Amino acid sequence: MPGVRLKKQMRVLGIETSCDETGIALYDSDQGLLGHKLHSQVDLHAVYGGVVPELASRDHVRKTLPLIASLLAETGLSKSDIDGVAYTAGPGLVGALLVGAAIGRTLAWAWQVPAVGVHHMEGHLLAPMLEADSPEFPFVALLVSGGHTQLVEVKGIGQYRLLGESLDDAAGEAFDKTAKMMGLPYPGGPELAALALKGDPKRFHFPRPMTDRPGLDFSFSGLKTFALNTTQREIAENDSAETVLQTKADIARAFEEAVVDTLVIKCRRAVRECGAGTLVLAGGVSANRHLREKMQSAMKKEGARVYYPRTEFCTDNGAMIAYAGWQRLRAGATEPMGFSAKARWPMDSLSGI
Amino acid sequence: MKILAIETATEACSAALLIDGAISLRYQVQPRMHSQLILPMMEELLNEAGIGLSALDAIAFGRGPGAFTGVRIAVGVAQGAAFAADLPVVPVSTLAALAQRGYREFGFRQLLPAYDARMQEVYWGGYVVDGQGLVRSVFDEEVSTPESVTLPDGLNWQGVGAGWDSYRSVLEARLGNAFSGCEPGLFCSAEDVALLGAALFNEGESVAAEQALPVYLRDKVAAKPKQVNQ
Question: Can you say where in the cell this protein is located (chain B) (predicted)?
Fold first, then answer.
C-alpha cells in the first residue's frame, strides 16, 4: 500500500544466556547496534575444567538484570524506548536458557511489547550482518564453535539446509580438549591457537579427517587422540623445559593446521556444491586467525567472498540475538505468554521469513 | 495495599493477587509446566482486578529453597516484572509459605515444613504462629539429612510438605515425642507468599528488582577436580 509505513522504527533488547556468557544488547532497526554488554563466566568454571550447568544458571540470574540496567544507562535509553525483546530459547543448557527466557519474556509482557525466542545458531549465523559490509543471501555458512561444527546452506532468514556436521567433537571442543591434554589453562582453545603461532608447521603432519571421501560431515575426535599419541611419543622425561615447550608448540601447530585444512576443504566442497559466491564464518572458532587467512585465500580461488563477524561477536553475545530477534519480530513472530527453552532444536526446523 | 505474588519452587505453580486484604488465586499442580503457566496466571489476576502492574506496591516471590530451576523461574519472572514496572520485590521463604499454609488450612501452630531436597536430604525449617496469625521462624532453615534435622523445642510439632512423604518414618523417629502429626500432601502456594510478603513489605523488607535472588541452601553443586591442568 503506497504511503503506508509498514514497519516503524524498532528497538530490540537481546538477551543471551544459553551457556557460560551473559550477553545483553540493544539493536535499532534504523541505527543498527546501539550497544552491548557481556559477562563471561570463564573464571567461574575454570576450576572445574568445564562448564558446570547449575553454576552457569546461578550466575545468569545474578547478572542479567544488572547488565540490562547498565546498558540502558550507557545508551541513554529508557525502558519505554524498547519495542521488542529477543531471548535465546535454545539450543543450549536448559536451566541457563530459562533464566534469560523468564526475564526476557516477562519484560516484554510487562512492557506490552512483542517477544521472540531466538535460535542460538541462527544468531551466530546472522552475526556478520551486524557489520557495515555484510553478506547477502544466498550463502553457505560454516558454524564452528565449542558446541557446533555445521555447514549450512542459507537461502534467506529461516531457510536453512544442513549440508554437514561433526559426527563427534565440535572443532572448538577438539581445540579445548587437546589444549587440556597438553596442560594449557582452561578453556584452552585460544591458548592452543596462541601456542601454535610459535610452532613449526613442517615438523609434524596430522591427518585431515574425512577429507578422503565425499560428503560434508566432519570428525575431530581422532585428531585429539593423534595429538595425545604424538605428545607421548615426542616428549621425553629428560627434555629441557624449552624443548618441551617447542614440541608442544609444534604439535599445537600441526593440530591447528589439520583442523583448519579440514574446514577449508569441506567449505570449498560446500561452496562448489551449492554454486555459492559467498561463505560466512561464524562461531567462536571463526575468530581463529589461521582459519580466516586460509579460508580467504581458498575462497578467492573459488571466486567466493568470505564474511565473518568482528571478533567479539564470534563468541556468544547479545548483539546477534537482538539482531536475529529483530529480523523475526519485523516478520511478525511472537511468543505466547508461556515461555520455554529447548536443549535441542534442529536449525532446519525453523520457519522461513 | 496491592501485592502480586508468585510461587514456582515445587510441583505447584501459583500466582496470587492481594488487594487490601482480599486474595485472588490461580493454582495448579503441574510439574515442569511452570514456565508455561505463570505469566498467564498473573495476567488473568490483573485483568480480573482491572489493574496494571504499575498499580501494585510490590511483587512477592517464593525465593526458595526448592527445585533450582523452579525457584529461578519465579526469580526471573519477579525480576522482569519488577524491573519493567519499577516495583520493589519481596523475597519470601518457600518453607515459611508452606508453614503458613499449614496454619491456614489445618490450624497447626507449631510447624516443621520439609521439602525433599533429593540426594537423601530435606529442606527443613521450624515456625510458630504469632499473634497476627503469621508464621515466624524459630531456627535457621537448612538442608540436612532427615536423620540430623534441627529439633525444635517442646512438644506438639506438626509436619507439612512432601519431605514428610519421602522421609516420614525417619523424621518421626528423629522427633520422638515432639511429633504430633503431619500433612505431607501440602505444596507451597502463592496465597501464603502474598500474606507473608505483605507483612514483610510493611516491615520494610523489600529490595530492588536486581536483588530478587534465590536462596538455594544447597551451595555445593559441583565437585572440584583434585588436579586441574596437571
Answer: Cytoplasm
| Total number of domains in chain B | 2
DSSP, residue by residue, A90-154: ESS-HHHHHHHHHHHHHHHHHHT--EEEEEHHHHHHHGGGGSSS---SSEEEEEESSS-EEEEEE
Residues of chain A in contact with residue B75, where contact means CB-CB under 8 angstroms, are 61, 102
Average pLDDT of chain B to the nearest whole number: 96
CATH number of the domain bearing residue B166: 3.30.420.40
Show which residues on chain B lie within 8 Å of chain A, measured between beta carbons. Answer: 35-37, 39-40, 42-43, 53, 68-69, 72-73, 75-77, 79-81, 83-85, 209-210, 213-214, 216, 221-222, 224-225, 228-230
Is the domain of B140 the same as that of B155?
yes
User: Do B100 and B87 share a structural domain?
Assistant: no
Question: Which pLDDT band holds residue B227 (cuts at 50, 70, 90)?
Answer: low
Say if residue B122 is in the same domain as residue B74. no
Cβ contact A186:A180 at 8 Å: yes
Q: Does A246 touch chain B (CB under 8 A)?
A: no
pLDDT score for B224: 79
**Residue appearing with cell numbers 596442560:** A183
Q: Is the pTM of this model over 0.90?
A: yes
What pLDDT score was predicted for residue A4?
A: 45
